[in-house]
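Convert to structure. Protein one:
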Amino acid sequence: MGGVVSRDDFMWTYDEQPHTSRRKEIVKKYPQIKELFGVDPSLKWVIAAMVAVQVFFCWLLQNEDWLLVTIMAYCCGGVINHALTLAIHDISHNTAFGQKRSFDNRVFGIFTNLPIGIPISVAFKKYHVEHHRYLGEDGLDTDVPTEFEAKFFTSPFRKFVWLILQVQPLFYGLRPLIIYNKLPNDLEILNFAVQIAFDLVILYAFGIKALFYLIFGTLIAMGVHPSAGHFISEHYVFTEGQETYSYYGPWNLCTFNVGYHMEHHDFPYVPSRSLPALRAMAPEYYASLDQHQSWTWVLYSFVIDPKMGPYARHKRVASAPQVLEGRHILRKYWEGIFNYFAIPEISRWISSCISAKKTD
């Protein structure tokens, strides 16, 4: 125990991801599961309350001692902000307003992002879709570590440092820019602008301690923190032959049931609130699979077990090319505004006047 990792490559597999076939089999046997698809009507209200609580804590901590602010950021703010990142995960599957209101889901995701302090919502959505569609595929699933991460973070100490550096915007945040560098879209720019504006309002209204409480809480809860155990527990291979794992313990109450991860990958359009009901409908498909009992134990095992490390992931050859250009959802809105105020016509008139002067 505690030695250098024993693996020197990813676990390459040439089989289709297991969730596709299991989904078909479960739906055939239990068609009533489709009734769980759709919207979680409580999600938006729970998130609004969490955002309000974080702003209240900013007010409460603005003149407190730095030590208390730091402790609160780890024990309270970090837990709430990590939960909000997982709420963004839920919203990315359109569970706040439904599949037909994608734009409303994206805008609500930007609102959910506010206490997190770092703009992640829109970018997460565009990469998370690929994670589900191309699970483990080389160059498409940015949840899989890079070769550098896998080769460098091999000892217990280095793996511990790697866990710390999972915080946004380091390895977990920068990895997509290295593996699959998609061009930013207009909603990402809006996400960035709104987030910076909110951070400046918090700084102006409550001071640097309040802003530190939000951002430090986000960062510390993404690394060595019980909430962050799901990053390792979800797809790192603790049992040969099993690619995805669930956890059914009490931390699900603080993380929008992200522990029900096998169920989520089988049915990504089932809201997190309904995942326990999904498992109860088809228990025989999940009871025999290995599951985790503790996210804290997962983090500890990952550090000390030589079998575990960034290489302990299933990987597949890419089945599709990378698509770098994104969809600009806001384009039709600002083009409509431009047309309403005749800006294209005015631009053409100015250009024609300039051309006429040059001719003269």
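Protein two, convert as well:
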Amino acid sequence: MKNQKTSAYIKFLSISSSIIAIYIVTQLFTFSTEPSISANETPTFKNSYSIFSLKIPEGINFAGEKIPFEKHWVKESLDRELLVNTYWQSQTVLFIKRCNRYFPIIEPILKEHNIPDDFKYLAVIESGLMPRAISPAGAAGIWQFMRSTASEYGLEVNSEVDERYHLEKATVAACKYFKKSYASYQNWSLVAASYNAGKTGINRQLNLQKANNYYDLLLGEETGRYVYRIIALKEILSHPNRYGFYVDEEDLYPNLKTTKIVVDSTINNIADFAKSNGISYKEFKDLNPWLRKNKLSNSRKTKYEIDLPVQIATQQKIEPNIVPAETFVPNKISGNNIPLKTSGLQVQ
């Protein structure tokens, strides 16, 4: 009788264990399947986080030029960059937010100089669209110019003024580089690669490897991934929802509304100047990161455009373009600095 009870108990435990095992396995498969979300429902982290391989989109190109996906290494190289930038989520979300602020400044300059719009993504991979970015090698600004290259393409670089940090002027300088490079290569992917490795370096590899395009070159890690990363970010930032990125409009970094004023004389103390115009030193430097010190000597009386918040001009009742530039003669700015509303500054 005792043995029968023991046998029945063992059978009960066996059946219970089997049921529990089946339940656990079922749950594993349940939580590994693709989440079900209705068409009108916005995905959230809790109900939709999953890891997927990615499909290479059909028809993707760089600057209007065909990408040779029939070559397996080209497809695999782009696949790598799509995966890295899709699943480095925090960085890519920041890119999406910053693009809203800086692309409206970059895009019209590229268009004016007949440079393909895709080159705005080059700025993203160069600096992450961080205005004060500086590399270990000394490249600076959103376009990451080295000092010598910046001077070659018309940017002023000294201890007080460093126009590598001036987004508009640095974008114009980058356009000059792209144009000059395209005149040599007649190919935009090589233009982009040369921005990273230099034209001398790219020319050396083209000659050494008897190649005539970027995709057939065996290059070092950085330049070898460079154009693919631009293409990947173009795809992700152009179609963020397709890659799982949902950033509400109110979370995008706003384009800062500013008024440009012209100064052709000395500012002895920028902190005083900022304060006299109703903003902090930090806000002033954020709007004008190309001014590197707490003063602007300007012994040559160069005309510099300085950005101030639009509301400052509004509060002080200054309206842009009232005074024609050709007839306006700015006064000196004293050591204590004069407010924006005085005639020492010219609004444009």
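The radius of gyration is 28 Å. The longest helix spans residues 2-32.
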